[in-house]
Amino acid sequence: MKKELVAIGMAALLSACNTGAEKKMSVETTENPFLTEYTTPFGVPPFDQIELEHYKPVFLQGMEEQKKEIEAIITNSDAPDFENTIVALDQSGKLLSKVRIVFYGQNSANTSDEMQALSKELSPLQSAHSDDINLNPKLFERVKVVYDRKDELGLNKEQAKLLEETYKGFVRGGANLPEDKQARLRELNSELSLLQLTFGQNMLQETNAFQLIIDKEEDLSGLTDGLIANAAEDAKAAGQEGKWLFTLQNPSVMPFLQFSDKRDLREKIFNGYINRGNNNNAADNKEVVKKLVTLRLEKAKLMGYEDYAAFVLEERMAKNEKNVYNLLDEVWAPTIVKAKAELTDLQAMMNKDGVDGELKGWDWRYYNEKVMKAKFDLDENEVRPYLKLENVREGMFYVANKLYGITFAPINNIPKPHEEAEAFECKDADGTHLGVLYLDYFPRASKRGGAWCGTYRSQTYKDGKRVAPVVTIVCNFTKPAPGRPALLSADEATTMFHEFGHALHNLFKDVHYYGVSGVPRDFVELPSQVMEHWVFEPEVLKVFAKHYETGEEMPVALVEKLDKSSKYGQGFATAEYVEASLLDMDYHVLKEIPAGLDILKFEDAAMKKRNALSQIPPRYRSTYFNHTMGGGYTAGYYSYMWSEVLDADAFEAFKETGDIFDQTTAKKFRDYVLTPGGIDDAMVMYVNFRGKEPNTTPLLKNRGLK
Q1: Which of 237, 330, 416, 533 is the Cys-Cys partner for 421 at CB 3.0 to 4.6 Å?
Q2: Which pTM does this prediction carry?
Q3: Which candidate in 499, 576, 603, 644 is catalytic?
């Protein structure tokens, strides 16, 4: 009875909404930009015309249209075959996809309270709509008929993969479950979707809520002129003119921890940072995490798995949790040794400064900077003047051109996802259009933290012709001080190259079906991480690392200092990453949820079990670990390390030729890794490129762990 009431209620809601939406849209069809063909340059979304009220009616209409398309597949009197069932399903829901890709892109990069409220309203509707498809017995019956005949259909590799993924998607979506379990699965999917959304919104709220306001100039001791100028601007914007405002956005909090001489203030902002979502307020995430972990385990068991990690990893390169832990443990052993050695150096430097007691988490970056200066005569502020944002951008374009022959040219008079974004057209070596790339650099309250690459249109085919993707890179880099250009840190420059690697993956992709466009989560970071290797190669620095005032190239001595110092600090960087990866796995290998699960105690026990240093908390603590709790990298944060095994080995392929721009190797990487989407097994794609499976040696050497 409960299941029937839920289904009737959802149907009634959709029907009521659609009735109103249909009446409105019959009048306003020409006014809703999603309901007509985009007439913008390169067919990008008309961001300048899209208003909040345009989204909901198109979501509802898109779901209704896809329902009709599914019904047409089911009621087709012809026998099920690849075209009338598998391809028809793959191509269904285009209006829904059209609005969804824009809405969620904007919800991450330029959100508002109203947009977040709408995302919560849409979440259960979309979850129910997805389940209506995945749990449709008549549709699955047709898919299974085609799947059972797969060996006699004469399908090519891409078609065979689409059929396999489609069938597997239904099975993993619960199509084989009995009716009562399907009803519970629907409830779980809806609850999980909303919880993941709530977690991310709470995290954004907590990040934006914290303010460290300084009103005494002496409390700015140690901070750079640029950071001070930006803090003054932020304070002015917040109605605190004459003061200085520091936030939990990375370009504010990280350099503050790195350079501030005021230990008490470092402690305050550090604690604000690591306690996001853990302040016992309306945005507290502890209970959200507990519910997520509990419901994910229930879903896994419902699907026949002993834990959630087993359910997830079945579709990844790692295949099982044992392989994940083996990798993380192999890296952790030398990491903790290196981190302890670094701690000894930092503690000695702190004592030399006349500070008694044990070095704390809020001291690490500050004294690491001092040790780097003492050991290598390297100050990050020496490097920034040579990393003008525009030069770094041109540097990554240069690398792509040298490797693949592609070019990027700025586009003017084109709608943009935000007024601060830039737009570029990417052309292949033969001059053909590959896609559009947006770049959005700086933090704002409407943008979630971190950096990412997404799309506003995925590559596809229409009427036999390739439809080029619209790709976006979104970052949170240090804003330029008034009257000065944006000068990036070495880490920010690396981040730009990293996200550009994802962009190239999207731009080069060439598949005919949506169902084979993706790759496993622990393979997806290979294209991005391999690009990081070029950033500080002397040949590349010579091209783009030029002083923003004088135009002189980065001095050879400074390049050498960067190289010599590159391994120092890897104990800290690797430890905080591996700790977060282990924490993610530990949550999702639970076979039973402990009674009264205390999230903070669970996290603390996970760290103590590995003898982690108290001064190095996980890169993401449980209450702001959006990678796993938000759903993107659930039981998958290890993927960066797994992919690093691949990318370190892949860059060796270039180095072995004696030319880091070897175009033969680049063509193989493009053909076998960047272009095929998910047509092949991920390890097969890698071996096709490299000729062998990778090992961890290059990774450990790159990090100075071997």
Answers
A1: 416
A2: 0.93
A3: 499
